[in-house]
């Protein structure tokens, strides 16, 4: 396997069995020395063979076979670049668990602040007024003390715009929570803005109103979220591959042991037959003969009693 797979397996074996959902299908527990104890139902030659047929090692190894140049498997060669244009974030998003989704949708305020600042300065060179509108949206989100601006109707509209995308009550302790149901809308908004930008690259970027400032902030949030979706998806693919590899290696180890034991038993019984044929009586034969004699003697006694 590739070196990244080896490292991943090493880390994985240090994890608790409870975290390795796939391995728990075949392993009962870990003993005091940390060795995996096979499930009782699999502890027969047929049981282990059936499990190995379900998780064949050979087939899987092809999947994580290192490629020529950098000695890494396809997964680790393409790490962070595994996605091409055909991979849709919609599909990835749909496959993620709700726990993963809520992790993705929690962004640290500090990170967002840094990205917003980069967006307003280095990236788009917004003028001071536009920049203020963008940073106003950020301040509104992080609930910094603000003197209300605009009419009451404007304030209400701005608040409801924010509430549509962000869980304002959950935004605290430097964390910003996006409604996971709003993620697709935010990502589409980001993609649309990118497309518009590509079409009119000569025009400078502006955020002349507070709502436009919010829209700019949503773009930055969208970019952050998109990256998190890709990374999270990649991580879950790697986790799946590593767990699949681990369960196959463990089963294959038990199967090898089982085969060795069977071969040994086979050799022993052949040896016994061999010895028997050579005129020397094997222990088992001797034992059988002794039993026979005992039964005859017992039968004799019974007859005697009768
Ligand atoms: Zn690998
Ligand atoms: Zn401007």
TrEMBL record:
Biased-composition ranges, Basic residues, are 281-293
Q: List, alphabetically, the GO terms of the cellular component aspect.
A: cytoplasm; nucleus
Q: Which stretches does the entry tag as region Disordered?
A: 277-306
Under the heading PANTHER family, the entry gives:
GAMETOGENETIN-BINDING PROTEIN 2
Write down what this protein is called: Gametogenetin-binding protein 2
User: Which organism is this entry from?
Assistant: Strombidinopsis acuminata
What does the organism's lineage look like at the top?
A: Eukaryota, Sar, Alveolata, Ciliophora, Intramacronucleata
């Amino acid at each position: 396997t590739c070196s990244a797979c080896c490292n991943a397996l090493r880390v994985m074996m240090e994890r608790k069995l409870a975290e390795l959902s796939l391995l728990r299908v075949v392993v009962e527990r870990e003993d005091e020395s940390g060795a995996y104890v096979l499930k009782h139902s699999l502890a027969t030659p047929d049981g282990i063979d059936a499990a190995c047929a379900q998780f064949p090692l050979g087939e899987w190894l092809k999947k994580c076979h290192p490629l020529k140049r950098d000695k890494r498997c396809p997964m680790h060669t393409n790490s962070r670049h595994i996605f091409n244009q055909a991979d849709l974030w919609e599909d990835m998003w749909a496959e993620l668990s709700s726990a993963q989704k809520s992790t993705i949708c929690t962004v640290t305020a500090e990170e967002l602040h840094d990205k917003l600042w980069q967006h307003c300065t280095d990236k788009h060179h917004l003028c001071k007024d536009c920049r203020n509108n963008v940073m106003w949206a950020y301040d509104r989100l992080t609930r910094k003390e603000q003197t209300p601006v605009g009419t009451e109707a404007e304030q209400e509209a701005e608040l409801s715009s924010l509430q549509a995308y962000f869980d304002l009550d959950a935004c605290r302790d430097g964390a910003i929570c996006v409604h996971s149901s709003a993620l697709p809308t935010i990502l589409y908004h980001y993609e649309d803005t990118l497309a518009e930008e590509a079409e009119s690259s000569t025009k400078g970027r502006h955020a002349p109103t507070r709502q436009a400032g919010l829209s700019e902030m949503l773009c930055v949030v969208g970019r952050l979220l998109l990256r998190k979706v890709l990374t999270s998806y990649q991580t879950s693919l790697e986790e799946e591959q590593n767990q699949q590899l681990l369960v196959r290696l463990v089963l294959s180890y038990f199967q090898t042991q089982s085969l060795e034991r069977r071969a040994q038993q086979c050799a022993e019984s052949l040896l016994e037959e061999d010895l028997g044929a050579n005129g020397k009586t094997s222990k088992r034969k001797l034992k059988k003969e002794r039993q026979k004699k005992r039964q005859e003697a017992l039968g004799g006694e019974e007859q005697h009693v009768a």
